[in-house]
Amino acid sequence: MFEKEALELRDWPKFKSFEFFVASRYLRAKRKQAVIAVITTIAVLGIGAGVAVLIIALALVTGFNEDIQSKLLQGTAHLNLLRSDGEGIADYRALAQRLTRVPGVTAAAATTYFRVMLSSTYEGQGAIIKGVDLSAPREANEVYSTIVEGEVTSLAAGQPGEEGMILGKALAEELNLKVSDYVTVISPEGRLTPFGVTPRMKRFRITGIFHSGLYEYDSSWA
Predict the structure, then answer these.
(1) How far apart (Å, rounded) are the C-alpha atoms in residues 55 and 222?
(2) What is the 3-state secondary structure (H, E, C) of 68-85?
(3) Which terminus of the chain has fewer Cβ atoms in its 10 Å neighbourhood, N or C?
(4) What is the predicted pLDDT for the residue at 83?
(5) How far apart are CA 54 and CA 46, in angstroms?
(6) Domain ranges of the chain
C-alpha cells in the first residue's frame, strides 16, 4: 500500500502543491470510503459557513464604525482649540490664518458654544448654540454640508432683531418649529436688575434646518 501511495505522489503533476494533493485525496474518497467523503463534505461546508458568517459580521462592524465616524466628523470640527483659562480668543482671525498654514489643516474658523434653553409657543428644550463665522471658508463650517432646508447665509441679520438660527431636524420637530418661525433663547447667565437677577432672553428667526444623521447633534444643536 505504501508503494502505491508513493507512486501516486510521484506521478502527481509537479505544478500541484502538496497541500492541494492531500486535500484532493481526502475530498475525492474511493467508493468504499463514501462515509469519509460525506463527513469531509459536511466539515468543509461547516467551516465555510463559519468563515462566511465571520466575514459578514466584520464587514457590518467595520461599516457601522465608518458610518458613525463620518457622521461625527461631519457634524463638528475635527479639532477644537481653547484657551486654558476658558476665556475668548481676542485676535481669532489672525490665529485662524496661522492654523491654515499648518500641514494637514484644510480650513479653520472661529466659533462659540453656549448652553441655553429654547422656548417656542408650544415647547421648551435645552440646547447647545454654536455661533459660526460666515466670513470663514465654507469648508470650515460643517453646517453648509448638513443643511436640508433654508440657506446658511440667511443667518446674518437683515435688520436689528432679525438674527437667524438653524436648528437640528429632531430639535425642530421637538419644538414644533419650521422655517420662518420664531424661537426665544434663554441664557442661564442672568443680568442684575433693580428687581434682582433675571435671565437673558433674545428672539431668533428660524432660517434653516440641518440634518447630520447623528441624533446627538440633530436633537440638541442649533
Answers:
(1) 40
(2) HHHHHHHHCCCCCCCCCC
(3) N
(4) 83
(5) 12
(6) 2-73, 112-218
